[in-house]
Design brief:
This protein has about 350 residues and is mainly β. The chain is built from six helices and 24 strands. β14 and β15 form a beta hairpin.
Length: about 350
């Protein structure tokens, strides 16, 4: 429902397929954001949810309303809503407000797919009159591979329930690995300084070209309000979710893969401590969970992972976040082949991927 992270986050009908909008912006001018907001806003939606929560003190059930954001995307032959899993999970009622021909329309929605690995969700829209979607606008995902520190960005969403609020900022850092909770593994998040707040979760992050380069997901906060440190899931992860993971698992969370390893960069002094060659390349095993598939396979702290593969296909990695992303995205029950060094000797092991524990 909200996007905070405390560290220290009718009748169903077919919906007409529409062409995504492509916005082209030149150099930053006085009207750059004005044009961008006008062009992009119709593709953003306001999400409201209702949840049942049991109050153990008063021993009765309460109905709690939540707010979030999302964006209209083409999926299959329908227009659907992409948002965060934690915005809609466990909701007994979901409503989506969208702009149609400059007018707000509220329609019902139901969960198409929930995904624990990405903390993303896909919603199907339902309405008795499908003609209301004839003026709806979808948005395209892309550009996150070219994201750079200092790049201007724009977030549009519903902070504090204030519908269609625009907030600009810059990319503060890329490749941030932060644990968000929600049973979601760390990703290479885009860090931004736009003043996002609870209710922005699930909303799009635009570059000046009008590309959705990220999905706003969380803030770093001690108070629950913006401290100028926000995180967005890169568009490439959202595209992978739509193409490979959004398969209509209605109301069911797909689980993230897990083998019980935590890795870190191979620093020169650590290579020396564990008797690895000084020029060795790979990731050091920082921790092995007990019990875990990795422990059962004999991997130990200090081993240097040099390669990964599955079914004979190499799985390239450079950083610890790459390793986490690869393992978390593997199907449960699949076999991950790991090559590693221990005191200069090469070893190989095959590990069955398990479901990430809660």
């Amino acid at each position: 429902m909200c996007s905070e992270m405390r560290l220290g986050v009718l009748m169903a009908t077919t919906i007409i397929m529409l062409n995504p909008v492509h916005i082209h912006a030149g150099p930053l001018m006085e009207d750059t954001f004005i044009k961008l907001i006008k062009s992009a806003k119709p593709g953003v939606v306001h999400i409201t949810t209702t949840q049942k929560q049991f109050d153990p003190l008063e021993k009765k059930t309460r109905f709690v309303m939540g707010v979030g954001s999302g964006l209209l995307v083409n999926h299959g032959e329908k227009v659907k809503v992409l948002t965060n899993k934690h915005v809609v999970e466990d909701a007994i009622d979901i409503s989506v407000t969208l702009l149609v021909n400059k007018s707000e329309r509220k329609v019902a929605a139901e969960i198409d797919t929930l995904d624990s690995y990405t903390d993303l969700a896909l919603l199907s829209l339902t309405a008795a009159d499908q003609h209301i979607f004839s003026g709806a606008q979808t948005l395209s995902l892309g550009g996150s591979d070219n994201a750079e520190e200092g790049q201007w960005v724009l977030a549009i969403g519903n902070p504090m329930g204030l519908s269609m609020t625009s907030q600009k900022g810059i990319i503060s850092a890329i490749g941030r690995s932060v644990p968000l909770g929600f049973n979601t593994p760390p990703h290479d998040f885009i860090q931004i300084d736009a003043d996002i707040n609870p209710g922005n979760s699930g909303g799009p992050l635009f570059n000046l070209k009008g590309e959705v380069i990220g999905i706003v997901t969380a803030i770093y906060s001690q108070t629950g309000q913006s401290a100028g440190i926000g995180f967005a899931i890169p568009a490439k992860i959202a595209k992978d979710f739509l193409e490979t993971r959004a398969v209509g698992k209605r109301g069911v969370s797909s689980r993230a893969g897990w083998i019980g390893l935590l890795t870190q960069a191979a620093e020169e002094d650590l290579l020396s401590i564990f008797n690895h060659p000084r020029n060795a390349l790979g990731l050091l095993v920082a921790r092995v969970d007990k019990p875990s598939p990795a422990q059962e396979a004999g991997i130990k702290q200090g081993d240097l992972i040099t390669s990964l593969s599955r079914d004979g296909t190499p799985l390239p990695f450079e950083r610890a976040t790459d390793f986490e992303r690869i393992v978390s995205g593997l199907p449960i029950g699949s076999i991950l082949n790991i090559t590693y060094l221990r005191e200069g000797r090469e070893k190989r092991v095959a590990i069955k991927v398990h479901s990430r524990p809660e």
